[in-house]
Amino acid sequence: MRKTHAPTATQGNGEQLSFLPPPPFSPSWPTRNTLADRALGMFMNGDMLDHPDFESSTQSWRLGAVVFTLRALGWPIETIEIPSPTDQCPDRVVALYRLDAKYTAQALAMNGRAK
Fold first, then answer.
1. pTM, whole model, 2 decimals?
2. Do 80 and 96 form a contact (C-beta atoms < 8 A)?
């Protein structure tokens, strides 16, 4: 498994370094009872989700769109890329998503919202 992360200048990819501190963690909560809210609850419970897990829990196959929404709201959802080759696509990679527990603790401490 390979965890994806933001490239750094030491990796030689030409990305510009920032001398400014990163913005503070202050996400917005998704609207209650939406797919984003349900996914965030699963992430905050420590679940790692892939598309089949999400679909079986929510009857929605739109996990990528939900993760995009959560990221736009300020939630640092991580993507773990897992090689999953098939005969038709030997370079196939699937995504597994997670939220680091430190962000769950910080969000609950800041907001007091129950998981």
1. 0.76
2. yes
